[in-house]
Amino acid sequence: MNTSQDLKKDLEEKIFAKRQQIEFEKTNLDLATEFSQENRENPEVMEETKNFDDPAESVVETDELNSLQTAEKDLNDLVKQLEELNKR
C-alpha cells in the first residue's frame, strides 16, 4: 500500500523527469528556430526567400510544439497534485 510519503516521492520524481523533458524539447525548438534564422540571412534558394518573413513557429514542426505544450500541461497537473498532497 502506498503511503503519503511514497506518493509524494513518486510525484516529485515525475515532476523532475517532466522538467527535464520540457527543457530538452525547448532546447530542440530553440536550435531549430536559431538555425532557420541563420538560413534566412543568406537565402540561396527561392523557397527560403519566399518564407523569409514567416514567424519562427512556422519553421518548427507543429508536432514538436504540441508535444512541448502537452508536457508543460502535464507538469502543471503534477505540481497541482503535489500541492494537494502537501495540504493533507
List SSEs in N-to-C order: HHHH
Mean pLDDT comes to: 79
Category from helices, strands and their pairing: mainly alpha
Number of domains: 1
> Count of helices?
4
Number of E-state strands: 0
Which stretches are low in confidence, meaning pLDDT under 50 for 5 or more residues running?
A: none
Largest sheet report: none
The shape is: elongated
Q: What is the CA-based Rg, rounded?
A: 19 Å
Helix content: over 70%
The share of residues in extended strands comes to under 5%
Distance between the ends = 18 Å
Walk me through the structure:
Helix 1 (4-41) packs antiparallel against helix 4. The protein is mainly alpha-helical and 88 residues long. The mean pLDDT is 79. It has helices at residues 4-41, 46-50, 56-59, 62-87. The two termini are 18 Å apart. 1% of the residues are buried. The protein is built from 4 helices and no strands. The chain has one domain (4-87). The protein is elongated and about 50 Å long.
Topology, pairings included?
Elements: H1 4-41, H2 46-50, H3 56-59, H4 62-87
